[in-house]
Amino acid sequence: xxxxxxxxxxxxxxxxxxxxxxxxxxxxxxxxxxxxxxxxxxxxxxxxxxxxxxxxxxxxxxxxxxxxxxxxxxxxxxxxxxxxxxxxxxxxxxxxxxxxxxxxxxxxxxxxxxxxxxxxxxxxxxxxxxxxxxxxxxxxxxxxxxxxxxxxxxxxxxxxxxxxxxxxxxxxxxxxxxxxxxxxxxxxxxxxxxxxxxxxxxxxxxxxxxxxxxxxxxxxxxxxxxxxxxxxxxxxxxxxxxxxxxxxxxxxxxxxxxxxxxxxxxxxxxx
Length: 271
Prior knowledge:
Layout: E1 3-6, H1 24-33, E2 38-42, H2 52-65, E3 68-72, H3 78-91, E4 95-98, H4 109-126, E5 129-133, H5 140-148, E6 155-159, H6 171-178, E7 182-187, E8 189-194, E9 201-206, H7 215-222, H8 224-227, E10 230-233, H9 243-270
Parallel strand pairs: 1-2, 1-10, 2-3, 3-4, 4-5, 5-6, 6-7, 7-10
Antiparallel strand pairs: 8-9
Helix pairs in contact: 1-2, 3-4
């Protein structure tokens, strides 16, 4: 099991909201500087248009920095996933996270089954795992119903319990529903706070260990070290009013979460 960062750990620092957004190569450089050897390029559609030469250059950089790459996209459209398999081959990525729905395709259960059945042999031949993420638009039990129809070890779950809270699924319920097929973890903590005037709540991120995610219970159920499940750091950091403060806090959350996961990893290895 490795601890990794995602493009979502650089959400604001790589966004148009800041004067000088980080490029993908700069994100890799900062990841290596933190002593992290895994990076997931997740929901970064610009990479779909990169030439083979650009992809080769990124892989060379990752190799020089000692970083393993993973990919993330959305949807099950066959041509789209074939494009990502090509990108994965160029980057030597062995995992692609996706979601059941994309902006243009929302398959029902039977359609999702058929789409997976069509593309899964290509993933198996390339020995790349397809990991479908838990999120609020699809109940975890339905997602598992679809996945369980395909026993392949190259198809599984990218578990993010925080996402499903918006669909009134408790994190521990989602963890239990999906535990048998988890291949990848998106790790972020979260909390509710009252909105101004005490009218409703805001669900937002917070540093690991300070919110509602029972990380210890999740690890006890999944045993990521033993099972070889990579843990990818993400954030739900609200905009702090200006770029400098937001970027500084995002970087601080990243350092905190890395230290938190490293401590927990060491504890699990000693058990």
